[in-house]
Amino acid sequence: MSFQIAQISDCHLFADKHEISYQGINPYVSLEAVLAKVALNGPDLVIVSGDVSADESLTSYQHFSHLWSQSEISAPLLVIPGNHDDLASLDKELNASAGWPVSRSAGAYWRIHALNTKAQGTAGALSTNQLDYINQQVSMNPEAHHLLVVHHHPFACDGWMDNHPWHNSDTFVAQVSKHQQIKAVIYGHIHHASHRQHEHCWYLSAPSTCWQWAISAQFSTSEEAPGYRVISLNNSGLVDSHIIRI
Hints:
By secondary structure, this protein is an alpha/beta fold. Helix content is 24%, strand content 25%. It has a 6-stranded mixed β-sheet, covered by helices on one side. It is globular, with a radius of gyration of 17 Å.
């Protein structure tokens, strides 16, 4: 048995739902298409790993709510902020004042912990309180398998997005390394699907639901299509994952 997650990320919705940006993509239209795919897949949970908005407008979050309500997805929604998000508007419209960090069960064998790496500007940081929270949650649930959700990339991606880093990511990775129960970390920010194993843990990034960034020294987009990541959390602690694009 397994618990199925659909991870979507970096929707970058504008107040003007007709606005088109990189790659000639309208982020409102592309998100609508991604959510239609997610609905067909029937996940147990949908996670949005940050940057719902491109302009921090309340209207952009209302657009997300509208697309979500018409998508016919029956799974619950878990959202964390990205560097482009307005915390008050995001929390008001999509999280029912849940705040971050927040944890939830994923079936009988897994716990998911959603964190907030938003800091000044585009860079990321994780507070000492949240680092302590990780320790506390694993200590409280030592028999469970754990998955962490963040926005910024924990490891350098070797491209121009490394100009927008997570400043204390090395401290975070060291924290993860202390806990064999943490099986996966999922994130967004780099608009690029990637996977790597570091010690016992998988680190997985999702594509953007709109435009994709190229892994290059200078700013550049990729020709890859928008999409999302499917993650299967097996009862044994194994993690299976693949990308679906529109």
